[in-house]
Amino acid sequence: MKALTYHGPGRRTWDEVPDPVVRDPEDAVVRVDAVTICGTDLHILGGDVPEVTEGRVLGHEAVGTVVETGSAVRTIAVGDRVLVSCISACGRCGYCRRGTYGQCTGGGGWILGHLIDGTQAEYVRTPFADSSLHRLPDGVDDETALMFADILPTAYEVGVLNGRVGPGDTVAIVGAGPIGLAAIATARLYSPRRIVAVDLVAGRLAAAERAGADEVLRADDGAEQAVRALSPDGLGVDVAIEAVGVPDTFELCTRLVRPGGRVANVGVHGRPAVLHLEELWIRNVTVTTGLVDTRTTPLLLDLLAAGRLAAGGLVTHRFALDQMPEAYDVFADAAGTGALKVALFRP
Hints:
By secondary structure, this protein is of the alpha/beta class. 27% of the residues lie in helices and 24% in strands. It has 2 domains: 2-150 and 293-345, Quinone Oxidoreductase, Chain A, domain 1; 153-288, 3-Layer(aba) Sandwich (Rossmann fold), CATH 3.40.50.720. The strands form 3 sheets. Strands 3, 4, 5, 6, 7, 14 and 15 form a 7-stranded mixed beta sheet that branches. The radius of gyration is 20 Å and the shape is globular. The mean pLDDT is 96.
């Protein structure tokens, strides 16, 4: 089969690799029908994730059809149309029993495209199929479903839930890329008073308005004061969600929150950011970080199927699966191409 493989910082190929096979009784092999590229894949190519080894098939998000299952798989069958979650869960370790699947110590967690071969291929082996694949509701198309492999649960769990967004809150979302847009959509489930999106790119701010942001602001020298002015008393926002992964945006979030506020960091950072504890400690500010657990994926899919959660508008560029190198080029040059999320489909 063809797959996108990593060969060191800045080097990738789309070439023939061996077909995946069932190696464990709990495995399934899935034919990839739709797949996407994540900002984390760009971090890997930048050399920020040294655990990824030479020849690794990248990718951790896909929609597909089950073509083979191991003898111990009980709830997933050949022919099922499934969402391949970015997180694999053994279902038995202490973390999994608490629903903290991202920290699985039984062989799961973020392993696809990281510690084992991933989804940017024609087929993928998925460990722990019963707890790591999700049957898709009828009527949900592949492109929309693809956003629930990582983007929606990450924004919801690491941003909205960790940030404890509640009714009447003022929420600032710094970064209006795919994660930021998904954070807007899922924050709206909790009836905040106002959602403010901050970004450098006009096209992304326009997308934030379409996603439901009440205010959009360009990230310039006046952004901090402008955000504060939009809070009821000028003291700052209740929740600031960092959805970029660079030091400047994280540090901006810590300045935007009011005393007693919460900073929920979602972005993947490749460089150190300064944590100004000398200023934050006296303001009772809470800072959270996290890897998604995907424990809310079934809930989010149910909300989608019921028409209570809008998840469209994130994909801006579409390709055939064998156009993977071109899709990477477009996604990596988001400033020039306007790409938010790219999707690739089996012909």
